[in-house]
Amino acid sequence: MKKSSLSKLFSSGYLILVLLFIYLPIGYLVLFSFNEGKSMTSFSGFSFRWYENLFSNEHSMLQSIWTTLLVAVIATVVSTVVGTVAAIGLSKAKRVVRTIILEVNNLPVMNPDIVTAIGLMLLFISIKVQPNLVTLILSHISFCIPYVILSVMPKLRQLDDNVAEAALDLGATPWKALTKVIIPQIYPAILSGALIAFSMSLDDFVVSYFNAGVGVNTISMYVYSMKRYNLSVNAMSTLIVVVVTLVLVLANLIPWIKDRKAQKEEL
Questions:
Q1: Rounded Cα distance, 12 and 9, in Å
Q2: CA atoms within 13 A on the CB side of 97
Q3: At residue 245, does pLDDT exceed 80?
Q4: What's the number of domains the chain is made of?
C-alpha cells in the first residue's frame, strides 16, 4: 500500500512539474503583456499599454499577423482537403503502393526544416518563380499535407469497408457515399489533422524565411528581424494563445453538444 501511494504521489508530482514546465513560460508571457513598464523581469503595474501600441503604432506587426493568419488558413483548408482525399485513396490502394507512398509521405515530417526549406526554394528557382506570397502558401501546403495524411490514415484503418459498399449497393452515388458515410466517421481525425496543420503553419519560421520573398513577413520572421524586443510581441502572443485556446475549446465542445442532442433525441 505504501509503495502504491508513493508511486501515485511521484506520478502526480512528475505530471505537475511537466505541466509547469510547459505552461509556466506562457503564463509569464501573458502576465507581462499587461505590464505598464518595459521590463521583462519587474512587473510595475497593470496596463493595456502594449495592446494599444500593437493596434495603433505597430503597422508592420499587424501586417505580419494578417499574413500569417491568411497563409495558415489557406494552407490548412487546402492541405486538409488534399490530405483527406489522398488518405482515402491510399486506404483503397494495393499494400505495396500504400507502403511506398506513406514512406515518401514521412520524408517531410522526418526531414529537418532547413532541408525542406532549401529544397522548396531551389524548386521555385529552377522553375524561375520568384519568392512571393504564393510560394509561401504553396510551401506551407506542401509540409502540412503529410501531417493530415498521418492523422487520417489510422482512423481509415478502423473503418469497415462493407459500410461504403453497402451505401453504393443501396443506390448512393460515390460522392454521397464519401460525404454521407465515410467522412462523418473519420471527422474527428480530419479535425485533428486540420488543427495540426494550422499550428504547424502558424509556428513555422525556417520554411517561411527561405520562401516568402521581399516584403512578405510572417509573425516569426517579424520577431526575428526586430532590432530591439518590444513588449507588443507579448500582447500579440497572448492574443494568439487566446484564439488557439478558443478554437480548441470549440473543436471539443461542438461534438460534445451534438452527442448530447443525439442522446436526448434517442430517449
A1: 5
A2: 8
A3: yes
A4: 1
Report the range of poorest mean pLDDT among 27-41, 68-82, 144-158, 252-266: 252-266
H or E element at residue 205: none
Q: What are phi and psi of 35, to 5 degrees?
A: -75, 135
User: 460534445: which residue's cell?
Assistant: 256
Evaluate whether residue 53 is within a structural domain: no
Contact 50, 234 (CB under 8 A): yes
How far apart CA 118 and CA 207 sit, in angstroms, is 8
Phi–psi pair at 47, nearest 5 degrees: -160, 150
Per the CB < 8 A criterion, the answer to whether 218 and 64 are in contact is yes
Residue 50 pLDDT > 70: yes
* pTM over cut 0.90: no
The pLDDT assigned to 267 comes to 63
Residue 118, helix vs strand vs coil: helix
Residue 84 within a domain: yes
Judge whether residue 220 has pLDDT over 80.
Answer: yes
| pLDDT above 90 for 75 | yes
Which CATH number characterizes residue 87's domain? Answer: 1.10.3720.10
Residue 167 lies in a domain: yes
- Distance of alpha carbon 75 from alpha carbon 6, whole angstroms: 48
- Full domain range(s) for residue 166: 58-233
> Is 5 a domain residue?
no
Residue 173: what are its φ and ψ, rounded to 5°?
-75, 160
Neighbours of 198 (CB within 10 A): 21
**Alpha-carbon separation of residue 22 from 17, 76, 198 (angstroms):** 9, 25, 20
